[in-house]
Protein 1
Amino acid sequence: MTRASVATSLRLILFGPPGAGKGTQAQMLKEQLGVEHVSSGDLFRHHLSNGTELGELARGYMNRGALVPDEVTIEMVLDRVGSLPSGRGFMLDGFPRNTNQARALNDALLQQSQRIDRVVHISVPDDELIRRLSNRYICRKCQKPFTRNPASGEPPRNCDDCADGGDIYQRDDDTPDAVANRLTVYHEETAPVLDYYRDAGLLDNIPGDASVESVNRAVLDALGLTAEV
Ligand SMILES: [Zn+2]
């Protein structure tokens, strides 16, 4: 097998807290490795907007304000993974969210004599994530994004793009308290899944508080692919 075909047949899982730059890394890896990017968020949107059987099932729960059960999410992901040409690798993003989903994935892959090759976790200290995420402000009128002035530590008062100087605000989701809360939820949810893959010897922790390029290099290093891309 050539090294290129090793890369395109890799089966990966990508983890990272909000603000860690996971989306950017996923985009780069998808192109560098030539694997299919399977994002659970995209899958949900696809099934919901196409009104598939699984989509309607999920919508029923969502309309009642209930959580979509694991079985539905698992089936969406396995259905997608199972539809890939044989030997085509993939990179899961947003799945598995808990050990129940991780086990179901493992079992389904085993039935096809497949397995997950590596699990990449981009980790960034919480205080850095809070700093990054809570530094986001938007113009109420045109939605142009702003950040705090590094010198004054204050966001601009008015939008320079709007003639009447639209006012700048921070979304409720992006306040430091809300961000800290999102991170707590992330850690509680993810820690057991990371433990599961660490125990299986598959987990690579990649420090994410570096430039996009060096994080990318570290991921490729961990996959043993540095020289090739
Ligand atoms: Zn504006």
Protein 2
Amino acid sequence: MRFGSHISIRDGYLGAARHATKIGAKAFQYFPKNPRSLSVKKMDRHDASECATYCKEHDLLTIAHTPYATNLVADKDQIGLVIDSLLNDLEIANECGSIGVVVHFGVLKNAANPLEGYQRMIGTLNDVLSRWDGEALILLENNAGKSGPTGTTIEELVQIRQLTEYAGKIGFCLDTCHLFASGVWDGDNWSEVEAKGIELGYFDHLKAVHLNNSAYPTRSMKDRHANIPYGELKIEQVNEFLASTVFGDIPFVLETPHESDFSHGDEIKFLNEMMG
Ligand SMILES: [Zn+2]
């Protein structure tokens, strides 16, 4: 299986790719730019295209992750910034040869009309994708539920994709911590979740997994990632998930704590040994 982790671009995109091979990763995720800002970055095209070449040569698959403030349901005065930033992320990801850019499902809090959040999100996606004709996809990620239940279910993800005008440019990224924390996967009902995902066509468009354990129990709605052997999901449950036949050759990316005594390299090794 294609295990990897989130990697810093401190040493550039190519540097991140080199680091990935060093720690035994077969995939990685990176922030295309400063994750704390929505400002548009002038990319180093040379570095990005070298990253793409290196990844091809070393059989590495990559995904990018949008900055934290990328809110698909932002207010009128903010949404322009979000759209420009997301187009910039797509351009960088495309140049780096990545599958796509991960963005969280938008949650509109305290809306008078609960449909408004979904409508705004569809509008933002249409706006961005009408101006995008590269290969890189937008990868919608399921929420943990910390800002309310919106965007936690497979049904919502599939529906939103279908309701846009550009479904072909949208895929999914499944976060296992969020799926567990939201209660959709309680650790014991994987076969039901799997059956629903198959029925709705979710897995046909699943392009990446954020492979995280959860520091809090199922239905806690808390988004706190834990290392695979040290979270509320039992190792047998993680095993059952990974043994599922619904996944193609996609990245399984760790977004877990990485201390010196248990690095991402150690965690990837642990996963590879666990999967035999
Ligand atoms: Zn995630």
Protein 3
Amino acid sequence: MQAEGIHRTGDGEPDLGPAAPVPPPASRPHRRPVALLANSEVAPSIHVLEFGLAPDDPMEFLPGQYVTFLLERQGRPVTRSYSIFSSADRHDRFSLLVKRVPQGFASNLLCDRAPSDAAPLTVLAPLGRFVLHDPGDRSVLLVATGVGLAPFVPMLERLRRDYPATPTRLVWGNRYVEEMVARVELDRVADGWPGFHREAVISRPPSDGGWSGRVGHVQECVRALCPDLSRTDVYLCGVNAMVNDAQELALELHCPKDHVFVDRWGESEE
Ligand SMILES: Cc1cc2nc3c(=O)[nH]c(=O)nc-3n(C[C@H](O)[C@H](O)[C@H](O)COP(=O)(O)OP(=O)(O)OC[C@H]3O[C@@H](n4cnc5c(N)ncnc54)[C@H](O)[C@@H]3O)c2cc1C
């Protein structure tokens, strides 16, 4: 479980802003009041939450960055972070992809929230160093499980816009077919981008044969599809166990250490 304080990145540094590339001044993190505009359950226990920013406080962010909610639980401050799932081209609002965690404090508070709820929420944003690096002549591999997909949607949009010739692959794992959200967003990214390939993996396929795609875990899929990562930038996002395993695998498949970029979300009890 993550600590009840500002999240720390894997390198132990306080994660108060991206190190590189340097963001424009408008992106410097600060406290921002946000209003919930829409809340839809897009799959069992998975919600897309759209928040609006104050008109005089637009937010520029880099694809891959996140917001941290400043909450209170029994009189004590609590922070929880969520990656921005929406396009980095919009500065007046942002969306999140949030999964309810059983007995989880913040995920349930957010998923239960209605746009009509009057009490304001505050985020510290934008934050995070898990941002795109110029791939140069390397290919790009993005690996996520579950809602770890969230930061990859704006990152893919940006890769498509800025590096359309870069071979880019998304490997995305879920337990159940029903958990595969964001089809519209991924279809939009894939449309007319021949260099982009996506691979969905299901670990618990339906017994009625309703899934004809890959079965297993993302690590097996990466090993099968990308046996040599020496010329690839690898981005990993999700709970610690998956990220740690996939990071180890990337190194084993010859990806240089400084070309593996990770976003660890904390421990899961699963
Ligand atoms: C940089 C960053 C970005 C993140 N982006 C997202 C995002 O886009 N979408 C999103 O849904 N989450 C995201 N998370 C995770 C999120 O911050 C919370 O950790 C998560 O919502 C659980 O918080 P909670 O308060 O509901 O649960 P807590 O009250 O903290 O935990 C309750 C119990 O659930 C367990 N638990 C905690 N997290 C999980 C989990 N993920 N799966 C299963 N069990 C768990 C804990 O061990 C604990 O026992 C991100 C985390 C980080 C650090």
Protein 4
Amino acid sequence: MLQMESGNVSPARERGQEKGRSERPRPRERLELEIEKLAFGGNGIARRDGYVIFVSGALPGDRVIAEIGKAKRGYAEASAIEILEPSPDRIPDRCDHGGDPCPGAPWQGLPYDLQLEAKQDQVIDSLDRIGGDALAGYELLPIEPAVEQWRYRNKLEYSFGDHDGDLVLGFHARGRWDEIVDANDCLLASEANNRKRNEIRSWAEEAGLEAYDLRDRMGTLRNLVIREGRRTGQLQSRLVTSVAEIPRPPVDLHTMIEGESGNTDGPTGVLGAEHLLEELCGLEVMIGHRAFFQTNTEMAEILYGIAGEFADLSGGERVFDLFCGIGTLGLTMAERAGEVWGVEIVPEAIADAEENARRNGITNANFMAADARIGIRPLLETAGRPDVVVVDPPRAGLSKKIVRRLIECEAPRIVYVSCNPTTLAPNAVQLAEAGYRLRQVKPVDMFPQTPHIECVAVLEK
Ligand SMILES: C[S@@+](CC[C@H](N)C(=O)[O-])C[C@H]1O[C@@H](n2cnc3c(N)ncnc32)[C@H](O)[C@@H]1O
């Protein structure tokens, strides 16, 4: 649980009440607040004379001391720095790193059934608030709980840092770009993933390598990404460094990356296999390090199963799989479809998708590397009208233009796999205005201990 010194605290509501109206708090001001409920995105909501404050690190029912970050006219953002009185619902944190709560598990203090309830409510709230009458009448199915509440992530991204001259490798502290909490046994990662990270940190320490420091642009080590084939036991580690000569690691790092940009997309120097082998829904799949792969393997199978049910294929349909990544979703449908056409913007992922079709003897799947915005019209010309379109976009959802292209497909059924109900809702409204009806929505918990919400929706013409 959070514990820090509280400093000077403004009594709740005091300043605002003097004038009979709420007053905007000042940045760094510390306030005592009661958390009412959870906001979309996972922060707690508190109010001071009607003025809304979003508090990270706090759960409904907590009484906290929070430090204000940004303060705008309509609302402020704050971080809980001390919990004065925990919510009666709170359970003890299970994952911490040297006493700091795991930044990757901000909802771990909330019992799992309440996490599920909050996610279900947030899907309803997004669809009803944003969708209004346009989406009215859909059936909301109960949220699918996760198979594993801990150690479910098949991919973790760690950052290097420095604590008083010691190399640390872990996660950014909540809301901090300049502070890394060292990870030893992160309960979101498997034991194998934790072992590999610790091995790489030991190697780096022995080699005398230092963390890259953004402030003075000195040092070498930036990030480490470890991805795991949960079914095959394979691990793929990618080290992102500044441009530097570094000793060859004794551990089997699959890929070394030199990145100047600060992200993990720098040029690649390959030391080992660039691909990870995994099994999913009975398929053997190759995952390149540049390609997206669902982060929770066990739940991806359930998610794909629900998408398959919503697609309701009977053997002869033409299916478009837009935003197809390495092709997995479409490939799991191929057996029950006439043909599958996948579109994806990352060319390396399309190469993986083609390889994945070949490996599994799937001959009715075709893939195209293109931005969906541009690629849908040529696809329609080549393939003809689809019976079902599956879309699985990133969190930002579909642009209005992509939805217009989707409407031009005139598919009787659209299956929408969404990792953000607040972008699903406006997309569904635009589709509803073009004659589609939102029929069913099923939330799926892919990310326990976090506020992330996935859901599958089906729309019909
Ligand atoms: C949420 S992932 C889904 C991938 C795949 N359906 C799966 O289940 O693994 C979204 C994918 O959309 C791709 N993408 C992002 N923007 C795109 C665009 N404008 N056109 C086509 N693909 C895009 C990303 O590279 C990523 O592979």
